[in-house]
Amino acid sequence: MKSEIKYKVGNKTFIYDLHSLERSYNKYINMTDEEFLKDILSALHFSIYICFVKNLETKDILSDDGIIHQLTHLTQNNTRKYVNLEEIRVNFKKTLVINKKTITFNKIIY
After folding, report:
1. E strand or H helix at 5, and its extent?
2. Angstrom distances, CA of residue 12 to CA of 6, 74, 80, 108
3. CA 66 to chain centre
4. Which long-range contacts (CB under 8 A, 24 or more apart) does 11-17 make?
5. pTM: predicted TM-score of the whole model, two decimal places
6. Which of 15, 31, 58, 104 has CB 3.0 to 4.6 Å from 36, enough for a Cys bridge?
7. Is residue 108 left, alpha or beta, with left meaning phi > 0 and alpha meaning psi from -120 to 50?
8. Alpha-carbon span 44 to 73, nearest angstrom
9. Which residues have CB under 8 Å from 5's CB, separation 6+?
10. Residue pLDDT, tens place only, 62-77
11. Cα gap 70→82, rounded to integer Å
């Protein structure tokens, strides 16, 4: 099975590897809370990309309870205390699960 998927945005062609995304997902969900917080910017970047390739609704990822919004709170000490890390980790695992069935495009042009 070919795991590289090409897509275009404007006049640029991009490639992502499904197996690599699956490995990254597994890495993040298996991290301890301490490891996850230490690598939060990388987890946030991964999350944004997965939301894109899964074509998730903006209202579902950016709203107050959305995964991107919640992860962003974890990047700052002054807002970290207002969110529940355990709930965010559960939401991360559920929302960002990645496999061939959850990817909504193989070749997309914007």
Report:
1. strand 4-9
2. 10, 32, 37, 12
3. 11
4. 16/49, 16/53
5. 0.86
6. 31
7. beta
8. 10
9. 15, 16, 17, 18, 103, 105, 106, 107
10. 999 999 999 999 999 9
11. 10
Pair of tokens at residue 72: 């962003």
Nearest of 39, 42, 55 to residue 7 by alpha carbon: 55
Domain ranges of the chain: 24-95
Long-range contact pairs involving 103-106 (C-beta distance under 8 Å, separation at least 24):
103/5, 103/18, 103/53, 103/54, 104/53, 104/54, 104/55, 105/5, 105/7, 105/53, 105/55, 106/5, 106/7
Residue 40 CA: distances (Å) to CA of 2, 7, 24, 58, 89: 30, 27, 13, 21, 11
